[in-house]
Design goal:
Blueprint (H helix, E strand, L loop, with lengths): L20 H17 L7 H27 L1
């Protein structure tokens, strides 16, 4: 479609509300604030990212591990 004419917003897929960058950014900002205001001396962006995205990737990783063990 992009070869024939210029794309506009109506050509794009709608994304889930859970995947919107504003929501994900807000979640990460909230966790980063916890890191900054925490009692630790040095805040860790990695820990904030892991708290936001870690559970989902751990869930997916479990299925990937099972699939790799079964299919090999």
């Amino acid at each position: 479609m992009g070869w024939r004419r210029e794309l506009d917003l109506s050509d794009l897929y709608r994304i889930d509300r859970d995947d919107e960058s504003s929501r994900l950014g807000d979640n990460l900002g909230r966790e980063w604030s916890k890191e900054i205001n925490g009692k630790k001396k040095k805040p860790s962006l990695l820990m904030a990212i892991l708290r936001v995205f870690g559970p989902w990737y751990a869930f997916l990783g479990t299925f990937a591990l099972i699939e790799e063990c079964i299919c090999k």
